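Troubleshooting log. The previous run stalled partway through. Resubmitting the same two chains, unchanged.
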Amino acid sequence: MSQPNRSLLGTLVLKELHDLVLTLRFSIGTALTLVLAILAAYIGSLDYNARLSSYQTKLKLNHDWLARSAVYSFLQPTVVRPPEPLSILNHGLEGRLGTDFPISIETETTEAEGQNRGNEYLAIFSEVDLTVIVAVILGLVAVLFTFDALCGEREAGMLKLVMSYPLSRSQFLLGKYLGAWLALMIPATLACVLSLMVMEFTAQVHFGSQEIVRIALIFALFALYLSSMLLAGLVVSSLTQRSSVALVFSTFAWFFFVTIVPNLATMIPDFAGDRPRIYQQARERLAQVDKEQDTAYKKLQDPRDPESAMPRDPMALYYYAINNSSNGWTGFECHFGDAKYYDKLRDFFGQLIPFAMRLASKRADIWREYVRYRYHQAALARGISFLSPTAVFRNNVTFLSGTSEVDYAHFIDLASRYRNTFLNYLQGKNAFNSWRWFTTDFDDGDRPWTEIVAGKTADEMAASGKKPEDVLNQWLHDRVAFAKFLQAEMEREKRTDRRLPLGDLPAFRYARIGTGEVLVHGAPEIAFLMIVNLVLFLVVFTRFVRYDVR
Amino acid sequence: MRHIFQREILDQLSSFKFFAGLLLVLILFGVNGAVFSLRYRNDLVEYRQVQQRWEQQLAERKKLDDLPQQVFEVLKTPLKTAFLASGGQDRLPNAYRFTISVWGDMPTTYRAFSQNSLVESFQSLDWSFLVGTAFSLLALVFVYDSISGEKAQGTLKMLQTYSVSRNSILLGKLLANLVTLLVMLVAGMLVSLLLVVLVGQIDLGIADLIHIGLFTGLSAFYVTLFLCLGMLLSSITHRPTASMVLGVMVWVVSIVVIPGVGTLIIQRVHKIRTTNEVSEQAGKVWDQIEEEYKGESSTWRGREMGKADNYQAERVSIVAQNKRKHLQESIWEDYLRQEFEQAKIVRRISSISPTGLFEYSVESLNGTGVLRDESLVRESQQYRRGVEEWIRQRDLADPESPHLCFQSGYLSLASLQVSIVPRPQFKEPSVAEGLSDALWKVIILAAEVLAMGLAVVLTFQHYDVR
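Second attempt completed without errors. Output:
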């Protein structure tokens, strides 16, 4: 008896498939899906190329900046996160999160900056990618395939006819379901294949084994999600008597899953949470750290500020370096100063730098509490998403495509470790306790300004009793001498021999989270989809067993 | 026609669709009211916090000479009618920041409140969204079987035996369903308003009530359009299920596909530069000024030293740096204008779909959207000019000051009472401004409604009722 049953099931599946493929819903749905998928893949690829070229530009700029640095205090590398190739299939948080992680003594970066943002006024428009198309359009098509699978056939009188065959009810259900699923996988597979083909030809991506595994997993998720939407339609069909009622129910359910829940999930933590208070707390504590910085700084007596030294030494300007540029608090490059002044500077920085690093750490810890709260909000949003298979599906694809907040946290972690590596490197070069922190004198041939102007050392000029302001002003007004000096200064900028030797500077290596780890992280979502499938099928089956087919 | 109207409305008001739909609407509008009440309260708290932080910073400035280092901020006040149409105000930049100092950062718009970039962006479930998506769907649900369903039941040919014209049948059905849907809409709006006023304690003024009235009128237009569309589809197909399926597909195209395509193709249709490229261009200005002033663009000897020759070198430097700043700022202002232009174009492309057009019109009428953002920039620039002039005048009143505007260290050392520093005041776009901004869009929407109505009339004329 089993053999004819199996071929009967096969026939039923094929019949269902054949019937569905000929409907208007199938043709319109497939057409919309494919057109949008190709468009989204093409535009997404072009955007990816733009982001990739921006990334490469930033790498080059960083490299050039480092190569041009003459003193250690200006050696401030920026670590950049490369764009995710799979973001073309699912944008996720790719546009919202920053990619640049600047490294310096006085700042312990906790959040990446988004230096190359697009038009921020477009942020309110939702982006269409393949995942959205599958979730929204194919999700609707799925529901439209099955909402009248049972009640519709009953109305048409077909159900009692089919039930007269030697076919069990479960086999009938399975046939309906499989037929519809196969019909739905046609546009899904075509959309995937076409998207990948467009990506292959347009985007500058290279698919390694990791990417291929992830793409396969994403496709499996498509199949799982579409199956759950099909079953949802079947459930509605088995619970109602009239197909028009089933249609209304199914459409409302789809609307709820696809529009309401995902928006609520991100809206509620944002609107109803406690974030403003925690943000204010963080800002207040940071303001206190600022005050602490101000009072401690005054005690350190910065030798760079000649008008604030106590007691005021009228001859101090003779030792002063007259060409200064600053970058923040600890970034400082100067020239033409006297050795005594440079020693004072070195001692000052020797104290300032550890102090700055301590404060940077303190500020970072304060800000991290705020960031941690935001991760909690993200987790809450993820939790609320379990009200809808669509939201769960999209969250999971975000994990697999490497565009989630988990990947971001991983990047921040790697970049923070690199900062430590970098600081150790500086420590190893004794950068914090040498003149090289702030000047290339006298290795580059620059002498103290008193020698350039008057041919005497700073001590000799101080002994002469003349006011340094008068000497400087006089020299400034000597157009010929001053212009020669300016010219020499501009020449100095171009010399390459005064650059720092950076051959042994460790480079930053970025590696994505492993696929296994991503799967573990997305396990609740995958399990949820599987359970939903199972539960829905059981519900349909139990209902259909007692369904009145007449 | 009155009989048809009465019959239809009784049918609909007692149907399952009505109760299910009413429940859905009440829940959605209830959630809207609750969520936006909480949001407004939070926004108000954050608004005050930002102002307080700014005042604390300002209080540290003891002399006029300190003012160039002060970061000035102009904040948008939280939008009271965000529950109606937020126009992205809960995510877009809501403040304009500038520094007077010649070394200050470029003026920029940014979001002054706390935000969570770790969570994906959402579509605001405001009234404009709810009516735009849910009510259009409801309209289709109510009329998809108005023609093909009655034909299937055989009651349509009976209608023909009465001496009633086809147009009055259509009109009767249209009005009955419109009234039903408006009943649901008003019920939802009342629930939402109750929550907003009681829980959120948002006190609505005359302008806000006018906005609500205009919104109701526009929604009636929009719902009519979809009712006509539903009836049109109903008279094209012969089975009610087919009309609904077709209706849902058209609805998806209107709500999802066309706006989605808009955002996809905007970068190809109207490309603007990225901030990286703009930064690069602005960066070149430094070199340009260096070249022009041959190393004399930035000489600062200090207040004491420069006094000897009345700050000759510094005067050259301040001219150079002011020039540099002005050039860089124009580059960024230009970029901001392009961003606004792009945002408007995306909205125009989305307006190809009636849902996009409806949401765009409501945004304009409510005085939000790009209109509000441009207002912020305009008013902030005005405020900035006012502050600069104020500082300049006070500095001139002090004969001791070198008068190098605006470089800290070279301005008046006279003590300053921060309470007299001019404060910013953000003015919402007026109702008149909103109306004039929305005029064309409302006209086009009305035209679309008329066109759809005509289409139904023409199709139904030739409909075979047997």
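Takeaways: Strands of chain B lie at 71-75, 95-99, 108-110. DSSP finds 14 helices and three strands in chain B.
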